Amino acid sequence: MPPTARKLAPGPCNGALSAVPRIGAQIQIKGGLARGGLPYTDAVEAKAVQVFVGNPRGWKLTAGDPAQDALFTAGCAERGIPSFIHTPYLVNVGSPTEATVDQSITSIAHNLRRGAELGCSGVVVHAGSAVGEDRYEAALRQLHERLLPVLDTIPDDGPRLLIEPTAGGGKRWPPRSRTSARTSRPWRTTRSSVSASTPATPGRPVTTSRWRAA
Questions:
Q1: Is 105 exposed, middle or buried (0-12, 13-18, 19+ CB in 10 A)?
Q2: What is the DSSP string of 148-161?
Q3: For residue 9, is it within any domain?
Q4: I need a labelling partner for 6 at 20 to 30 A (CA). Which of 61, 122, 123, 186 fits?
Q5: In 10 A of CB 120, how many CB atoms?
Q6: Given this model, what pLDDT does residue 44 score?
Q7: For residue 213, is it within any domain?
Q8: How far apart are CA 24 and CA 100, in angstroms?
Q9: CATH number of the domain where residue 170 is located
Q10: CA 177 – CA 183 distance, rounded (Å)
Q11: Degrees (nearest 5) of the Cα angle 57, 58, 62?
Q12: Would residue 80 be called left, alpha or beta, if left means φ above 0 and alpha means ψ between -120 and 50 degrees?
């Protein structure tokens, strides 16, 4: 691990992270995070889990169920597995539409708060798209300017924001490793990483021990 990358704090759901990639799952939470999610976790023998804490295709923010939250956090700790949250698919901080940017930032901040409440290791967000071919650099600056204040609010023991650069339409970023380094550099000390893949999806490795920093 590069010396500039912050190690995950040993939160309730972080589990014992090792150099061996974990195979995780996007868990089904029908009936509640714990009621639906933990049995599914056991059924697929997931070594890491990812959840949505609201509608993945909408902007509505949900507070969660304190009882289910507590049971989910305890259940992850008992199983020794890290948990992650994925933000809604609508999030695009690089959008030319101000309303979309505002809602995206609000959603990311909300999911980071929920991640802290649940003891999650990280919150995954799609890098998004500049949309127009002529506004790539402007959108990248916008991404930095709007996200950095949000990152400054994350406590030292809070979840890490994981930027997933493989999703997003239009002029998406980062399209190459050189751009990934440029994108991640301003966030080295603000608890953010560029992730090569969603951290907890069926059949795909979790990159909990492979943080990338410029």
A1: middle
A2: HHHHTTS-TTSPEE
A3: no
A4: 61
A5: 30
A6: 93
A7: no
A8: 30
A9: 3.20.20.150
A10: 10
A11: 120
A12: left
Q: Give me 213's structure tokens.
A: 């920093």
Q: Does the global pTM surpass 0.70? A: yes
The count of structural domains within the chain is: 1
Is residue 179 domain-resident?
yes
DSSP per residue over 41-100, as a string?
A: HHHHT-SSEEE-SS-TTS-------HHHHHHHHHHHHHHT--EEEE--TT--TT-S-HHH
Sign of CA dihedral 136, 138, 140, 143: negative
The residue among 208, 37, 214 whose CA lies nearest residue 124 is 208
CA 197 – CA 153 distance, rounded (Å):
25
Maximum Cα–Cα distance for the chain, whole Å?
Answer: 50
Question: What single-letter DSSP state applies at residue 8?
Answer: P
Residue ranges making up the domain that contains 28: 22-206
> For the segment 133-158, what is each residue's pLDDT rounded down to a tens digit?
788 888 888 988 998 899 888 888 89
Residue 104: closest CA among 115, 91, 113: 91
User: Is residue 17 in some structural domain?
Assistant: no
Taking only the tens place, the pLDDT of each residue in 12-32 is: 444 444 567 888 889 988 889
* 5 token code pair: 């990358």
